[in-house]
Specification:
The structure is a homodimer of 150-residue chains. With 150 residues, chain A is mainly alpha-helical. Chain A is 62% helix and 5% strand. Chain A has a single domain, classed as Winged helix-like DNA-binding domain superfamily/Winged helix DNA-binding domain (Arc Repressor Mutant, subunit A). The two termini of chain A are 28 Å apart. Chains A and B meet through helix 1, helix 2 and helix 6 of A and helix 1, helix 2 and helix 6 of B.
Chain lengths: 150, 150
């Protein structure tokens, strides 16, 4: 962690890492949208993140240990993977999304993964987290890392 | 809601309301610290919020429907109360605090209400929310409101 703690409160400590307007949206698109490349994240984010802000947030999330970046050599785009700390953001995304669905002025007919997960309870959050571990920490991620270090 | 939606995503909608560096800390101190007055919130926040930022955040949280402000007449300090939307922030505080306790660089011996609640599961979050309803929406809040409108 490179962030400076304002207090010993775990809520404040967490907000130092992802308590800005964009970090959770970047993590959302990786978790629920399986976007792993810079261009995908930039082009497909509904809220239209500016490229320089995306560069900054990805670097901060790597520095804070929520993402790893695998460079795959010339001409190949780098791959971002969630770490265990990044995967552990799922309950935050689910509870934030659950609040937004009820109180954020979202039309009732618009339902997405966070609302469904919130309704189905923590044991289903765990299933998503297990799936993310396989995708980001499992075989696929290890093969990508092996390619980038040989 | 007076905020402008950047997308129909409930996570983005929620972050429009409380996704800045201070709003969740203000709500934390009301939820876990039972601070109901401006001076209490200002003086007792561990992270030392600037008075003008606190004024701004309290107004935004009232505008967004998470808090109500009861003016009690000349010489008496106003009382802030959580609404149902404000009480519904509890799962967010608990999951954010749980993440921060594990990954935010907090010493292991520092344990607070969010970590204990996260470990004990959603049914205990509900107990806290029921208690907050009684304290903020129940008899006490109604008496304060009656005083302020007569």
């Amino acid at each position: 962690m490179t962030t400076e703690l304002r207090s010993d409160c775990p809520i404040a400590a967490a907000l130092e890492v992802f308590g800005d307007r964009w970090s959770l949206l970047v993590l959302r698109d990786i978790v629920f949208g399986d976007r792993r490349h810079f261009r995908q994240l930039e082009r497909e984010m509904k809220e239209k993140i500016a490229p320089n802000i995306l560069v900054d947030r990805l670097r901060k999330l790597v520095d804070a240990g929520l993402l790893t970046k695998q460079d795959r050599g010339p001409g190949r785009t780098a791959v971002y993977s969630l770490t265990e700390a990044g995967i552990s953001i799922v309950p935050v995304l689910v509870t934030v999304g659950g609040w937004g669905a009820r109180y954020g002025g979202i039309p009732a007919e618009v339902q997405g993964p966070p609302q469904e997960l919130e309704a189905s309870g923590p044991e289903h959050w765990e299933e998503l987290m297990a799936e993310l571990r396989e995708r980001h920490l499992g075989g696929g991620a290890q093969r990508a890392a092996a390619r980038s270090t040989r």
